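User: Before I run my own analysis I want an independent prediction to cross-check against. Here's the chain; please return only the structure tokens and, at the end, one sentence I can use as a sanity check.
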Amino acid sequence: MVNTGDTAWILTSAALVLLMTPGLALFYGGMVRAKSVLNMMMMSFGALALITVLWVLYGYSFAFGDDVGLGLLGDPGEFFGLKGLMEDTTSEAGGLPSMAFVGFQAVFAIITVALISGAIADRAKFGSWMVFAGIWATVVYFPVAHWVFDFTLTDDDGAVTHTGGWIANDLAAIDFAGGTAVHINAGAAGLALALVLGKRRGFGREAMRPHNLPLVMLGAGLLWFGWFGFNAGSALAANNTAAVVWVNTLAATGAAVLGWLVTEKLRDGHATSLGAASGAVAGLVAITPACSAVSPVGAIIVGVIAGALCALAVGLKYRLGYDDSLDVVGVHLVGGLWGTLAIGFLADPDAPAGVESLFFGGSVDQLWRQAVGAGAVLVFSFVLTYVIGTLVKAAMGFRVSEEDEVAGIDTVVHAESGYDFTSLGGGSGSALSQATTPKTTEGVRA
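Assistant: Structure tokens:
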């Protein structure tokens, strides 16, 4: 029998998570230069359109079809085109119409792909990005979602009715809402793709500052808002777990903002709006896997460490020489790794997950499970992304020419401009594209 209250909450949560992709478009769009803002936003909207279609056709079946062997992939034909799921039956989540679960998981797939685009801002061909996005979702995200999110089910007699993925069931690692499947996955992919495309012209020599910090902060606010659906919605019910997760998500994010701002202040002498927005996202990323496993105080610890750690990690690209334009690696990969491993240290047995961690009288048992799950997704995503990116680059080219990069992708690729400078009395050189903000951190993004 359908639980109407839970169904209403999951559909609302799905809408909240869907809003996160336009929020991400604003967040990323504000961080690039004025000449690239539309291209940056289009990569998010392109992912939203493409992955929606692929999810309906075969993505859901890849991720949540009955396992075809070794916990690696769901049966691609079981739910092809979502066949058989329109009937008035409840899904594996229990009490939910199947389509409610389909819709909720669809928006996770969408934003995971969109997150990767921040690593290649200012230099990627839009058509090549769309081809890459479709292949990557098929080869990388859909299988990993099966590993992490698809649980084995049994009937009242204990007989197995559905076999799920290996991380969720065989390894028994905890990833409540996607620290591995979403953030480590996207962060590793962003690193691989940044290496395939190479550095932007002027990287490390020219200041590539955000052109519109109000857009960045608006985008971060929408991400924070939508993330309550992302995390609390993953309880798949309007219950105590959802309530605990909601509070933990709020607490960790606030703590992460403070952690990032204090780190900035000590290191650079200024606490910036860009730092506040980035700190919020870092906290949201880190608490995502751990939100059902830690106490509210534990969530604060997860958040404050995530804020400080990610604030320091965004500078790694200058030291190591890779051009991750908008710090997908520094925020999503590093934040996702910390949040996933933090479960092994800080999980409270009184929290909904009911797991004992190293600091709460347990052993290293849960910690090694978290580490193996995180490491497997990281390596799988990085290697396959590098291969996919290299093949797309060889087949159709992935990067715009140097001349087009200098002129601006918006006008060259999309024949549009984010701002009508002539109406402001300026020339095509535009004051806005030259706008500057104080350079206060190593991680000021392009």
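Sanity check: The longest strand covers residues 160-162.
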